[in-house]
Automatic annotation (TrEMBL), chain A:
It holds the Pfam family TMC. The chain crosses the membrane at residues 117-138, 192-210, 284-305, 358-378, 501-521, 550-571, 607-631. Keywords: Membrane, Transmembrane, Transmembrane helix. Belongs to the TMC family. Residues 736-746 have a biased composition (Gly residues). The keyword Transmembrane applies. GO terms for molecular function: mechanosensitive monoatomic ion channel activity. It is found in: Membrane. Residues 678-755 are annotated as: Disordered. This is Transmembrane channel-like protein. One of its GO terms (cellular component) is plasma membrane. It is a multi-pass membrane protein.
Automatic annotation (TrEMBL), chain B:
Pfam families: EF-hand_7 (PF13499). Keywords: Calcium, Integrin, Magnesium, Metal-binding, Repeat. GO terms for molecular function: calcium ion binding; magnesium ion binding. Residues 101-136, 146-181 form the EF-hand domain. Coiled coil: none annotated. Transmembrane segments: none annotated. InterPro entries: CIBP, EF_Hand_1_Ca_BS, EF_hand_dom. The keyword Calcium applies. This is Calcium and integrin-binding protein 1. It comes from the Eukaryota. One of its GO terms (biological process) is integrin-mediated signaling pathway.
């Protein structure tokens, strides 16, 4: 076989392979596809062997076999991966009853569960397990032992519930970990691993969130423009094909009808600017009230944190006083959103805009609360740091005393005294563990409040409505209170903020991620049950359509905001002197310096010191700023050229339409001329029938109009010819004045009012 | 070239995986649900057709206002009666699956909405479409004036060449901008 022939054959084989790869994208019938597939596969099999002749035949055959095996492996892996996704059935059931918007919450929950599972794997595998297996056991050193004063009560249930006692001196919290540089036979560097896992948690979460956002943005379709195709979309995309339940379907019908009627009415009537001053005043009033309540809640939290610091010094606290802080924070999160909603009635916005305002306000509420809580916590930390100095001196003094006593008692100044019993050593306040405990308590109380709310707000309500209905004056099911609807945005926001707290607290309490995994798991089952048993489908379903990316954006924001406190503490605050993996160091990140000095070869150290030079970092930052600016201007240029192209297409379309109209007149002129001529040689050819079979999907349709006495070049138009276009020929010719630019068609396409 | 008995051959299974957007489990599940619809004698025949009524008894299609159109579009029956073989059923599930492309979905959506099968969506098609979406009862339907207004608005938005009908490319142009279409045009067994 000659070279040319081989090359051609290879090309054909490649083409067939491509066909096999994309055959599922073609909208053919299965029979046709099967036939094509088998043909193509036969062809490939037959000639692939032939191509392998000559030099490199064995290598070619090997390559082909490996490609086949790789494709098969990929497909099996995909199948396996889809099979591993949990809870598909459950979510599908919810989807068929409530539509896809409620189900999107559960999909989000499942995604969170996956992310937390990975974080848990990191923390557990790289920090907790090494310390448990290779580190010193409980009771051997002071930081791992319950102090003697607390030992009698260390096993009490109430103490454990507060995460004191044995809980406090366990792997759950920062203070348990030892600061030995390497532990065990494997010389595992625990402090380094602790720091790296802490930072890696944020890095991994960031990567995952951004990757999901990019994927969503891809599918969502970028710059559709808010009101461009309102009616067409309502018609073609409003039905949710996953609905499999007749009650939900009826609801959906009703809501579609309502939305049609509403948009027709909206389109017809103009903005009734009745009393714009009153409306403005009401809106300002509403915003003022809401700002006041936000400020009030912030102050309340600050006040309660201060009080809890006073409580810390007392011992006779009731259950309420011990948990006051967490209770108040959770209650605020419960009470304020409905309050905002009631105040927002004053504002009289369109429901979608009102929803955006509501979400923004709830977000501000949660954020304000969280940060006030953090600031109050920092005050506490600073107080503890001051205490530490005094305690350090005191413990050294006590140690000296102990040795002095020992030698005195034994009259033997030669032998070294045994170390003091661990439970007797005076302990520092260990602020990191205290912070960790606060976060864990907050998370636990948040869980309890959420579950209680579902139980009372949804379940009890449903039970009451169902059973009291038999003996009540008005119809409980149709009027007040009726069954609850599933509050999607509230639940999603709760989930997002919960994750923010986990990110903040995970550095100080490695066990927190494990608690969160358990919480998400139980949430899934509990909320699925609650939704199916006690909720009814929404009456008004309007989609906040790009909402998926909106919630991801919130998550990203929270991630950054939770990164800040942790990084701040790592960089500036000194670690406690006697607890945790960084004890004894001046700053926490000194571990890295130590590792570079001691573990890595010498040149790496000099390399890092060069890299950390400000003279190198500042130009790097400048470069990044320039890159951002450049990319920004490039994207602006693309947007502009996009607009230009759209305008061009519009012009081409309008020209097409005008030409078609013009053709009547041109045709008429030709007809007159032709009548004058003797042999009718100027007769235009009869308009060729343009039959239309099932139209093929074309992504870039190019239309060539047959010349009807007017010389048309190949025009780019978005519409393929269709039978309806034959009408102009039978109509009387349009007015002559229809040049390009005057036709009504010109303004039409651009005249859709933005909604 | 069809299903034999109640077991799907391995070769056929891998070919179906190649040709559709479904995974192996989804194809096997589809096969199971399809054979449940067959009566005992029919189970042994290859390439059986299942009548439209039986297909419409599936819970996923029962509440869908477009169920009959869907059956018609995917049916390869010579009698135009909406009956489906197993391969037609797989075609249906593949077009409605999660991983199907926008082009496939919009192509089939267009054919489903084209009630008179003439290749374009004219006023009659749009009117039938609206009536399907607003339910069966009279109090949810739109009045004739509202209907006219609605259809005018839709044509104004989507009819680019102003010929009074929406053809496939115009339809695809409108649909490709919609952020909800792909996620709502989904049926999962």
């Amino acid at each position: 076989m000659s070279e040319g022939e081989m090359a051609r054959l290879m090309e054909e084989v490649e083409e067939k392979k491509k066909l096999i790869g994309t055959i599922r994208n073609k909208p053919w019938r299965m029979k046709r596809r099967l036939v094509q597939l088998r043909e193509a596969q036969q062809f490939v099999d037959k000639f692939e062997g032939a191509l392998g002749k000559g030099k490199g035949r064995k290598w070619y055959a090997y390559k082909v076999m490996m490609t086949k095996k790789w494709i098969k492996f990929q497909r099996d892996f995909e199948n396996f991966r889809t099979a591993c996704i949990p809870w598909e059935r459950k979510i599908k059931e919810v989807e068929s009853h409530f539509g896809s918007s409620v189900a999107s919450y559960f999909i989000f929950l499942r995604w969170m569960y996956g992310m937390n599972l990975v974080l848990f794997g990191f923390t557990f595998g790289l920090v907790v397990i090494p310390e448990v297996l290779m580190g010193l056991p409980y009771g051997s050193i002071p930081r791992k032992t319950v102090p003697r004063a607390e030992q009698p009560t260390a096993q009490d249930y109430s103490v454990l519930m507060d995460f004191n006692g044995y809980c406090k001196y366990s792997v759950l919290f920062y203070g348990y970990y030892n600061n030995q540089r390497t532990i065990g036979v494997l010389k595992f560097r625990l402090p380094l691993s602790y720091l790296m896992v802490g930072i890696g948690t944020f890095g991994y979460s960031l990567m995952v969130v951004i990757r999901t956002m990019a994927k969503n943005a891809d599918v969502g379709g970028g710059d559709g423009g808010e009101g461009e195709f309102t009616f067409a979309w309502k018609m073609f995309t409003s039905w949710d094909y996953l609905i499999g339940n007749s009650e939900t379907a009826d609801n959906k019908f009703a809501s579609i009808t309502t939305s049609f009627k509403e948009s027709i009415v909206d389109e017809q009537e103009n903005q009734k600017d009745e009393n714009i001053h009153l409306r403005r005043f009401l809106r300002v009033l509403a915003n003022f009230l809401i700002t006041c309540s936000l400020g009030g809640s912030g102050y309340l939290i600050y006040f309660v944190v201060k009080r809890s610091q006073d409580f810390a010094s007392r011992d006779d606290l009731s259950w309420y006083e011990k948990n006051e802080l967490e209770l108040i924070m959770s209650l605020l999160g419960l009470v304020c959103p409905p309050l905002f909603e009631t105040i927002a009635e004053l504002e009289d916005y369109h429901p979608r805009i009102a929803l955006k305002w509501q979400l923004g306000r709830i977000f501000a509420l949660f954020l304000g609360n969280l940060y006030t809580f953090l600031f109050a916590l920092f005050d506490e930390v600073n107080t503890k740091l001051e205490e530490e100095q005094a305690i350090q001196n005191a413990s050294i003094w006590a140690m000296k005393e102990y040795y002095a006593n020992y030698t005195r008692l034994l009259n033997d100044s030669e032998s070294t005294p045994p170390p003091m019993d661990p439970s007797d050593v005076i302990r520092g306040p260990c602020w990191e563990t205290a912070v960790g405990i606060e976060f864990v308590k907050l998370t636990v109380s948040d869980i309890q409040v959420t579950y209680l709310t579902i139980l009372i707000g949804d379940f009890a309500r449903a039970v009451i409505v169902r059973f009291l209905n038999y003996c009540w004056c008005w119809d409980l099911e149709a009027g007040f209170p009726s069954y609850g609807e599933f509050d999607i945005s509230g639940n999603v926001l709760g989930l997002v903020f919960n994750q923010g707290m986990i990110w903040m607290g995970a550095f100080y309490a490695p066990g927190l991620v494990g608690i969160n995994v358990l919480r998400l798991l139980s949430s899934m089952y509990y909320q699925c049950w609650a939704v199916m048993a006690t909720n009814v489908p929404h009456e008004r379903v309007f989609k906040a359509s790009k909402s998926n990316n909106f919630y991801m954006g919130l998550l990203l924001l929270i991630l950054f905001l939770s990164l800040l406190p942790v990084v701040y503490t790592i960089m500036t605050l000194p670690p406690s002197f006697d607890c945790g993996p960084f004890s004894g160091k001046v700053k926490m990140f000194d571990v890295i310096m130590e590792t570079i000095d001691l573990d890595l070869p010498a040149f790496m150290g000099t390399l890092f010191s060069y890299a950390a030079n400000p003279g190198l970092i500042i130009p790097a930052v400048l470069l990044m700023v320039l890159a951002i600016y450049y990319l920004n201007s490039v994207s602006e240029a693309y947007k502009n050229s996009n607009l230009e192209l759209k305008k061009k297409m519009q012009m081409a379309r309008d020209e097409e339409k005008n030409r078609r109209n013009n053709m009547d007149s041109t045709n008429q002129v030709m007809k007159d001329l032709e009548d004058l001529m003797p042999n009718q040689s100027l007769a235009p050819p009869a308009p060729p029938p343009e039959p239309e079979k099932t139209p093929e999907p074309e992504t870039k349709p190019v239309k060539t109009k047959p010349g009807k006495g007017v010389n048309l070049q190949k025009d780019v138009a978005l519409a393929s010819p269709n039978p309806g276009a034959q009408r102009p020929v039978s109509r009387p010719p349009g007015p002559r004045g229809q040049g390009p630019g005057a036709g009504p068609g010109r303004g039409r396409g651009r005249g859709v009012p933005p909604r | 070239m069809g299903t034999t008995a109640s077991q799907l051959g391995k070769d056929l299974l891998s070919e179906y995986q190649e040709l559709t957007f479904l995974t192996k489990q989804e194809i096997l599940l589809a096969h199971k649900r399809f054979t449940e619809l067959l009566s005992k004698e029919e189970k042994d025949l290859p390439n059986t057709r299942v009548s439209m009524e039986r297909i419409l008894s599936l819970p996923e299609l029962k509440s869908n206002p477009f169920r009959e159109r869907i059956c018609h579009v995917f049916s390869t029956s010579a009698h135009q009666d909406g009956s489906l073989t197993f391969e037609d059923f797989l075609d249906l599930l593949s077009a409605f699956s999660d991983s199907a492309t926008l082009e496939i979905k919009s192509h089939y959506a267009f054919r489903i909405f084209d009630f008179d099968d003439d290749g374009t969506l004219d006023c009659g098609d749009l009117e039938k479409l609206v009536n399907c979406l607003t339910g069966e009862t009279d109090d949810t339907r739109l009045g004739p004036e509202e209907m006219r207004q609605l259809i005018n608005n839709i044509l104004e938005e989507s009819d680019i060449d102003k010929d009074g009908t929406v053809n496939l490319s115009e339809f695809q142009h409108v649909i490709s901008r919609s952020p909800d279409f792909v996620s709502s045009f989904k049926i999962v067994l």
